[in-house]
What does this fold into?
Amino acid sequence: RKEVEQDPGPFNVPEGATVAFNCTYSNSASQSFFWYRQDCRKEPKLLMSVYSSGNEDGRFTAQLNRASQYISLLIRDSKLSDSATYLCVVGGSQGNLIFGKGTKLSVKP
Amino acid sequence: DAGITQSPRHKVTETGTPVTLRCHQTENHRYMYWYRQDPGHGLRLIHYSYGVKDTDKGEVSDGYSVSRSKTEDFLLTLESATSSQTSVYFCAIRNILVREDTQYFGPGTRLTVL
It folds into this structure.
């Protein structure tokens, strides 16, 4: 089983749509969880951390289910500028980050 | 902006030649990381450093070496480049001083080995 798995997409949605990304991780001892965003030919950038209680930042909501080892990201009222690849990321034992392969989102007018 | 620069940003080289990539940070972070990104894979850890002269191997360290002689610079060396090392290389720093103890990435180096 891969350490972090995500649906590769692509997700093609119209502006204003709500879109959900899901991710599973294999190491039950993992302690930190993140969503990063990566634009084409750019570096990954932190979108938000994911906390056990769930957290929200504007149109973005992240959820963590430790029992199921499942992480989600919900984007409401999608904008054209949300088009990017979304990376599910879990903290590793070496202080490193373990990345999923990413889910590509394309928001259309 | 975490004050991270990488050089060169693009490089084309031939198989068998040595290549050194540089990562430079301006904020005195202790932890630095090198990752590579390839189609069909997530970013994968090559090597990391937890202080000056303190480094360790990551998941895909074969064929790579690193050095960190001062806090601000972390060098990645391909002793004898191979075509399988064609990739995008990202350097990252870990900021442990913020609530999100996570990593911030440099702009990347695109390396092509012919």
